[in-house]
Amino acid sequence: MKLAIQSALGVDFAMEKIKIDYPPEGMGDFSSNVALLLAKEVGKSPMEVAEEIAEACRGLTSTEVEKIDVAKPGFLNFWLAGKTIQNVVEEINKKGSEFGNLEKKKEKTMVEYSQPNTHKEFHIGHLRNVFIGNALVNVLKKAGGDVIAANYIGDTGTHIAKCLWGLVKFHPGEDFSKIENKTEFLGKVYSEAVQKIESDEKYKDEFKKIQKKLEDGDEEIVKLWKETRQWSLDEFEAIYKELGISFDKIFFESEEEIAGKKMLPDLLEKGVAKKSQGAVIADLEEYSLGVLVLERGDGSALYGLKDIPLAIEKFEKYRIDSSVIVADVRQSLYFRQIFKILEQMGFKKKMAHIGYEFVALKGGESMSSRKGNVVPAQYLIAEVANEVKRKFPETDIFSEIGLGAVKFFMLKYSSGTKIDFDINESVKLEGATGPYVQYAHARIASILKKAGELKMEVRPPQWRSNLHEKERALIFELLKFPDLVEDISKNYAVHYLPQYAIGLADKFHSFYAECKVIDEEDLERTAARLELVKAVQIVLAEVLRLMGISAPEHM
What domains can be seen in the chain, in order of their start residue? Predict the structure, then answer.
């Protein structure tokens, strides 16, 4: 195209400025804005420039492009040749699950996600974090990146001291071995402790003493902390196993706190931090980022004093080139503060924060550990699986479908959108749901199984000039998959995965409704369409895998 433009207009230009988009249906396969970009430079209207480029491109058109048109206010629309479209099917069936893989990159990225706190229940908000992070890790790997999946567990801090105080104060001598759900118990103790502390000032003093003992390494309190911490870690491990999630590296807040306190004198000496009313702060007012307290007047370390050494450790120890952190959107300012502090220290690296909004059950109030009204993750997973079993009693994979429904529902919204999780809506077999996409995959498996049972002598498929419009639309949707992978690897917008999956499933169902796949009277067409549905199955399975969702052979 560049040669054609230079020939038509006699100008050179930067290819990276050109946008290639997918226009509305019926207006071509690809659309370019190049005429709009060049109009002012050559002193002509965008439509004039577009017509000249189109004419030049027609003269250079290869067998890959069938038609080039111009649309107002100056877009160039391209239609691919039928053979080019059909070659996509051959490529997918040849590459299998590797279709869409991008070239290997030298850049190493660490994606930190999940970050649950011990001594609190793992709730449905944590699920959204996990699903976003895991999908991003999968996409970055498919895009050719070297990726480290990391978790940062909050196993120290004020909330833990409050929970330990609640145990000591209100549950002395209790036989913990008899408690069936220990993490639920810890959540209730924490909520109880918070409410007591807020209602009576004397309780606040008692809690502070426990917090000081924990920080000073009191043998009895540390023993209680280790025992109860392990309850949470065991639950986290069980949940991750159920979700099919694994991490390459797990960091602990208690370890980073030690590193942060060692670093504090250096931060003060460099002027990055300063003392203020007994506390240690980072004054970022000149950057319109406010003030971040690193250490309280009582000597207790806050999050910033832990995240600073953690960021440095990631880059120096693991030799990464970029760091991505998936965390609550309400921490956006906080992470901008941390990144600025690191920059002031001379540590300017490629770091990004992906913020996500609240999750609540439809019709329920916002969750709060302090209020004790969190919705446990395992409760939601079990309820969705039960809803699948109720709606589809004949299925033997209700847990698999249910988990897929939860993941899909969480991922289909952009990270900045609040979610009211609708259990009934999430398991429908129609609409934007996980079961709808899984059903498309299962239907294809059934078609291929039936074709195998018929044992037809089907010849290898040949190029056909009479593609049905539904076939063409379906194949072109497959063609978009590599671009999807590349786009998400750059913008981290993993909600495009379920959007694409729905679009592909829609086009498959539309194709299947109008195009007979197995026709014993037309073996050549049958061969071509069987290859097509195989390609759709491969891509559907792969996009589901990227979301961490299974691709069932039957429903």
Answer: 2-80 (3.30.1360.70), 113-361 (3.40.50.620), 414-546 (1.10.730.10)
